[in-house]
């Protein structure tokens, strides 16, 4: 007689063994982990940061996120609104320059990743011709009465300094410098729109007139007014930083800086900055793919310089920015795909 129980037992045992022997299949990785999620993104009011924002926007869209709008904001309203969750993120944080805003956002938002780590310099410059003719090496040299007159374009007896508009982090530091170095009787800080003020300074330079301005890198200004050829970086004899940057007083020198007046290393009086994303903490927790992309991505300073130069040459429309961002992504497709794959993996964990 056929032992049905034995056959059933053997069949069951073989089936179980076959299942055990089968390779374990990992769940499929979602290629669009951001699908159905809308991101409210901001960008800074300085247009040299808009291209970076567009690159991140397009990469987030490749993950399925809908970037519904990119709102242009000054520093104070951005850091307040990102902490409150009214906007989700931007990629235009400058630290330590923006350290003064940390109290405004630290309870609801956080720094994450780096757009560019180090290399973002700041300082005061003048035209090379005037620096050499009058032996100007330090900013303090311009406080001399006869030197002030060289840079006095409006006839008020003070040297005109192209500074930063209100609401920018650099405006806060420059205002601190005016107080700390007692520059109020020597310099007139021009705080109108930066691009327009620098365009005016460029025009004066092209007419052979002296110019005195603050700038940062990367920025189109050092493409049009090349340090070492057209202009020079001035040094500071003594570093006096705002309280929130006081521990960085030993980090204001730059080795072998092209176009620096005087002996190297060059003491600009400003610490080098990291350009960093800042995002709402709840948003990051709820969107691990976006969080990982922000941790992974980088944009070389040299690439930002190149784009800023194109923008200054007139390729600065919204369509231009979109095309320039898309071109950079495609030219770096293997690297970008690595970031996107890491973001998708983070979402599947």
Account of the protein in words:
- The protein has helices at residues 4-21, 50-62, 75-84, 102-105, 128-133, 145-150, 169-180, 194-206, 221-224, 281-286, 288-296, 301-312, 318-331, 333-348, and strands at 38-44, 66-73, 89-95, 109-111, 116-120, 122-127, 159-162, 187-190, 212-216, 231-233, 253-254, 266-267, 273-280.
- Mean pLDDT is 92; it is low at 1-27.
- The chain is elongated and about 70 Å long.
- Strands 3, 4, 5 and 13 form a four-stranded antiparallel beta sheet that branches. Strands 9-6-10 form a three-stranded antiparallel beta sheet.
- The termini are far apart.
- The protein has 349 residues and is α+β, with helices and mostly antiparallel strands.
Q: Point out poorly predicted stretches.
A: 1-27
CATH architecture of the largest domain: 3-Layer(aba) Sandwich
Reading the helices and strands in chain order gives HEHEHEHEEEHHEHEHEHEEEEHHHHH
Question: What average pLDDT do the residues reach?
Answer: 92
| Structure class | alpha+beta
Instruction: State the separation between the terminal residues, measured CA to CA.
Output: 54 Å
How many β-strand runs?
13
Largest sheet: 4 strands, antiparallel
């Amino acid at each position: 007689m056929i032992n049905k129980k034995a056959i059933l037992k053997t069949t069951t045992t073989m089936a179980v063994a076959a299942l055990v022997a089968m390779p374990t299949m990992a769940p499929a990785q979602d290629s669009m982990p951001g699908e159905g999620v809308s991101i409210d993104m901001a960008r800074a009011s300085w247009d040299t940061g808009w291209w970076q924002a567009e690159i991140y926007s397009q990469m987030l869209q490749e993950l399925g996120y809908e970037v519904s709008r990119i709102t242009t904001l000054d520093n104070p309203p951005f850091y307040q609104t990102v902490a409150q969750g009214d906007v989700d993120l931007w990629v235009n944080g400058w630290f330590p320059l923006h350290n003064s805003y940390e109290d405004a956002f630290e309870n609801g938002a956080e720094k994450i990743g780096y757009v560019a780590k180090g290399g973002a310099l700041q300082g005061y410059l003048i035209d090379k011709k005037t620096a050499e003719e009058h032996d100007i090496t330090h900013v303090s040299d311009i406080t001399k009465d006869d030197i002030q007159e060289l840079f006095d374009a409006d006839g008020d007896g003070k040297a005109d300094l192209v500074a930063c508009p209100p609401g920018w982090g650099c405006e806060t530091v420059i205002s601190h410098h005016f107080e700390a170095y007692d520059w109020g009787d020597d310099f007139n800080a021009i705080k109108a729109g930066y691009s327009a003020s620098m365009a005016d300074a460029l025009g004066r330079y092209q007419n052979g007139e002296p110019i005195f301005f603050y700038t940062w890198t990367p920025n189109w200004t050092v493409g049009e007014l090349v340090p070492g050829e057209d202009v020079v970086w001035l040094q500071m004899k003594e570093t006096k930083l705002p309280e929130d940057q006081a521990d960085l007083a030993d980090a204001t020198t730059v080795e072998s800086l092209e176009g620096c007046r005087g002996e190297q290393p060059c003491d600009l009086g400003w610490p080098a900055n990291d350009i960093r994303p800042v995002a709402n903490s709840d948003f990051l927790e709820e969107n691990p793919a976006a969080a990982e992309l922000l941790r992974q991505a980088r944009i070389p300073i040299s690439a930002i310089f190149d784009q800023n130069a194109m923008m200054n040459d007139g390729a600065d429309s919204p369509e231009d920015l979109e095309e320039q961002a898309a071109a950079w992504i495609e030219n770096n497709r293997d690297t970008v795909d690595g970031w996107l794959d890491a973001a998708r993996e983070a979402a599947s964990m």
